[in-house]
Design a protein that fits this description.
Layout (H helix, E strand, L loop, with lengths): L2 H29 L24 H18 L4 H4 L2 H15 L11 H24 L4 H30 L3 H11 L19 H22 L7 E2 L2 E2 H14 L4 H17 L15 H26 L7 H8 L5 H7 L3 H16 L27 H7 L14 H32 L4 H20 L9 H18 L23
Antiparallel strand pairs: 1-2
C-alpha cells in the first residue's frame, strides 16, 4: 500500500467536505462587500474603528478553510509574493519607531496605534490573498462576478431608495430610512447626498467607481457577459452600468465623479477592442483616433449634462462651476479653497514634510498623527476650520488624523523604500492585466480590459483615501491576479475570438 495515498486521503476527504462551506462563505464575502461600517462589530475585529467591513466574518472562515491551506499546499502566483516586501518594510519601519521616544496623541500611545495599523494591513493582505486563491476555474471567476453584482445590486437598490428623498424630501420617509441605516452603518444618512451602505457618500462613490464600474464597462466594451440572459445587445451588465452611474451621481462625490469621467474617457479612447479582435493588427490610423476622441468627448459631454442637471440643486456640489460665475477675483488656489479642498491640501503638505524629515523608511505605519502638528504648514488655521477642530478637538470628538491620500500615507509612514515596494507590487498586478488584455481570447481579453480599468480607477481613487482595511483595492487587485492565474494555468481554455460590439451580437462567456 502506498503510504502517500494513505496520508493524502483523509486530507482530500476533509477538503471535499468543506467545499460547500467554502462556496457559501465566498458568496457571503462578495455579497457583504458594500457594507463597510457595520455597527455590530466586536472590538477584537476593529469595532472601535470607522472601517468595519461586514465581509470580515466570512473572510475568517475562508482564511481557515481555503487561504491558509492553499498557501501551504498549492503553488501561488508570484504577484502574491510581490506584496511581501512592502509588508516587511511596513513592519520594520513600525518596529523601529517603537524605539523612539514619541509622546501619545489624544491619549493613544504609539504601540497601540502601530498595532491597529498593522492589523488593518493584515486584513487587506488577507482579503487580497483570499480573492486570489479562492476562484480556481474560469467558471468560478464568472460566478464570483455574479455574486459581486448581486451584492452591489442590493446596495444600488438601497442607494436608489435614498435618492428619492434627494429629489423629493419627506421627513417621515427620511426617518424611516434612517432607522434602517442604523442597522447597516455607524453613521446617519445625509439629507442632501446618498451614502448607500457605507459610512459616507465618498465611500459609496469609490465603491461604485472602483469595484463595480470597471467590470461592467469592460463587459460593454468587449461584448461579453457573465449571464446567459440578454435581449439583443442589452445585457445585465448594461443595465447595471447605467444604474450604477445614475446612483453615483446622487452621492455628489466630486472625487467619485471625476474618477468616473476618467474611466469612461480612457475606456472609449484606448481600450475598445480593434476590429475583428486581432491583437497584432496594423497601427490604429489617425482617422480612427479622431473618431474615438470625438466619441469619448460626446460620452463625457452627456455625463456632464446629466451631472449638471442633478447637481444644480445641490449647493455643495454646484460649487464646481459656480465659483467661476460668482467670484470676481478668481485663481486656481482660490478655486480649490472654495471647493473645500484646503484641508486635504494641508494634510498632503504635512505628510510630505514628515516624509522629508524621514525619507528612507518613514515614521512607521499609523504614526503620521504624532508628527502632524509640528509639520503643519505655516498658515493660519482659521482658514481651514477642519484642521483647527482636529488640533483643538471637542470632548468626545477625538479622532486621530490621517493623510487622506494613499500615496502621501505611504511616503510619510513607510518612506521612499515602502512606496517603491508598493509600486513594484502594483506594477506586477498591472502586468497581469496587460497579459490578459493582449490575449486574442475573448474571455481573457474581457478580464484584461476590466483589470486595466480597475488599475486606472485605483490610481485615481487613491488620491482621496488612505485605509488598508477597505476591501475595494484588494478585491480589484485580487480579481486581476486570480483571473491571470486561472487562465495561465489552463492553456486549453476555449479560444473564443473577440467580437467588438457593433460587429456581432453580444455573447455571454458562459458558452
Amino acid at each position: 500500500m502506498n503510504p502517500r495515498i494513505d496520508l493524502e486521503r483523509p486530507t482530500g476527504i476533509i477538503l471535499s467536505a468543506l467545499q460547500p462551506v467554502e462556496r457559501v462563505a465566498w458568496a457571503l464575502f462578495l455579497l457583504f462587500l458594500p457594507v463597510t461600517s457595520f455597527p455590530f462589530m466586536p472590538s477584537a475585529l476593529g469595532g472601535g474603528a470607522l472601517v468595519r467591513p461586514l465581509s470580515l466574518y466570512p473572510l475568517i472562515i475562508l482564511l481557515i478553510i481555503t487561504t491558509i491551506p492553499a498557501l501551504v499546499r498549492r503553488p501561488v502566483p508570484k504577484t502574491l509574493i510581490a506584496l511581501l516586501p512592502f509588508i516587511l518594510i511596513a513592519v520594520g519601519s513600525s518596529v523601529i519607531s517603537l524605539l523612539q521616544d514619541i509622546d501619545p496623541a489624544l491619549g493613544i500611545p504609539v504601540s497601540e496605534r502601530i498595532l491597529r495599523a498593522l492589523v488593518t494591513l493584515a486584513i487587506g493582505a488577507a482579503i487580497y490573498a483570499t480573492v486570489v486563491l479562492t476562484p480556481r476555474s474560469a467558471e468560478a471567476l464568472r460566478s464570483s462576478l455574479r455574486w459581486l453584482y448581486a451584492g452591489f445590486s442590493l446596495a444600488l437598490i438601497w442607494g436608489s431608495l435614498q435618492a428619492v428623498y434627494i429629489v423629493y424630501y419627506s421627513q417621515g420617509y427620511f426617518q424611516l430610512l434612517q432607522k434602517v441605516q442604523r442597522l447597516i452603518s455607524i453613521r446617519k444618512l445625509f439629507t442632501t447626498r446618498i451614502s448607500g451602505m457605507t459610512y459616507e457618500p465618498n465611500w459609496f462613490a469609490e465603491q461604485i467607481s472602483l469595484m463595480l464600474v470597471p467590470w461592467l464597462l469592460a463587459s460593454v466594451l468587449t461584448g461579453t457577459s457573465v449571464f446567459r440572459w440578454r435581449w439583443r445587445w442589452l445585457t445585465i451588465e448594461w443595465i447595471l452600468l447605467v444604474w450604477s452611474v445614475a446612483v453615483l451621481v446622487f452621492t455628489f462625490s466630486r472625487a467619485g465623479i471625476a474618477n468616473l469621467f476618467a474611466l469612461f474617457f480612457l475606456a472609449v479612447l484606448f481600450l475598445r477592442p480593434r476590429r475583428h479582435g486581432v491583437v497584432r493588427a496594423k497601427p490604429v490610423s489617425m482617422r480612427t483616433w479622431v473618431v474615438r476622441l470625438f466619441e469619448a468627448t460626446i460620452a463625457l459631454a452627456f455625463l456632464a449634462g446629466v451631472i449638471y442637471i442633478a447637481g444644480a440643486q445641490n449647493e455643495f456640489f454646484s460649487r464646481i462651476w459656480s465659483y467661476w460665475t460668482e467670484k470676481k477675483q478668481r485663481s486656481l488656489s482660490g478655486y480649490f479653497e472654495y471647493l473645500g479642498f484646503g484641508a486635504r491640501l494641508t494634510y498632503g503638505d504635512t505628510a510630505f514634510a514628515v516624509y522629508s524629515d524621514h525619507p528612507l523608511l518613514g515614521v512607521g505605519l499609523g504614526n503620521y498623527v504624532y508628527y502632524f502638528e509640528e509639520n503643519l504648514p505655516d498658515t493660519s488655521l482659521a482658514e481651514t476650520p477642519e484642521i483647527l477642530r482636529i488640533v483643538t478637538p471637542d470632548p468626545g470628538r477625538n479622532r486621530l488624523i490621517t493623510p487622506k491620500n494613499f500615496y502621501y500615507r505611504l511616503l510619510s509612514e513607510t518612506g521612499m523604500v515602502g512606496l517603491a515596494a508598493f509600486l513594484a507590487f502594483m506594477i506586477a498586478v498591472l502586468g497581469c492585466a496587460l497579459y490578459l488584455w493582449l490575449s486574442p481570447v475573448r474571455e481573457e481579453k474581457y478580464w484584461g480590459t476590466a483589470g486595466l480599468l480597475g488599475m486606472f480607477a485605483f490610481i485615481f481613487a487613491a488620491i482621496s483615501f488612505d485605509s488598508f482595511a477597505l476591501p475595494n483595492m484588494w478585491v480589484v487587485f485580487g480579481l486581476i491576479t486570480a483571473s491571470t492565474w486561472v487562465f495561465f494555468r489552463q492553456p486549453d481554455h476555449p479560444q473564443i475570438p473577440i467580437q467588438p460590439i457593433g460587429e456581432a451580437k453580444t455573447e455571454d462567456i458562459n458558452e
